[in-house]
Fold DNA-binding response regulator.
Amino acid sequence: MIRLLWIEDEQRLLAEGQSFLQAEGFSVASAGTVRDAEAMLNGQTFDFILLDWMLPDGSGIELCKQIQTRWKTPVMMLTAKTDEFDKVLALEIGADDYLTKPFGMRELLARIKAVLRRMNKWSEPAAAPAAYELTRGELRIDERKHTVVKKSEEIPLTRTEFALLLQLAKHPGRVYSRLQLMDEALGDAYIGFERTIDSHIRNLRKKIEDNPVEPQYVLTVFGIGYKFGEGL
């Protein structure tokens, strides 16, 4: 059974959503504030999080950042904000999807299932260690654990950053367009814009490169896209 945490202070929506998702076979817990959500995340394990943008005691965006670095649980942002900038912001900080209020419960369910399918695809273990562990220069990438270690220190990446790095590192020297990275690294369930890839790559470089201005791992191929450095 999928364990879902819904962080929402709109009680009417929460009650309707809990009833619907429980009828669909989900286990649904709820929190109405950032503080309550953090307490639940520290004490329990969840498979998916629905997160309201604006909460009484803080920002859902800031909480999403924490979730990506500390718990690495898939997150769907729920908000009345409809501006494209807000959608891009949510996706750039690591949200896996973004749903604008008001929404139908069937659409919500379909989007949750789509993200979970993508997560299962990413976390599928390989048959032998060599298939899921990569060493590229000073980076050690573990596909099964979703971890990246450099100089004996683990680097906290969002799922999107990890997926992009993994796809590029598996094929050093191969040039990917932004659309190819969206399709091959992130899958059909990715809800984002082509240029959002640039923001994810920029954030990734800040974390893995000694000098993000002169990268050695993730390289820009001008006019086309990106590739992973060869001979590392």
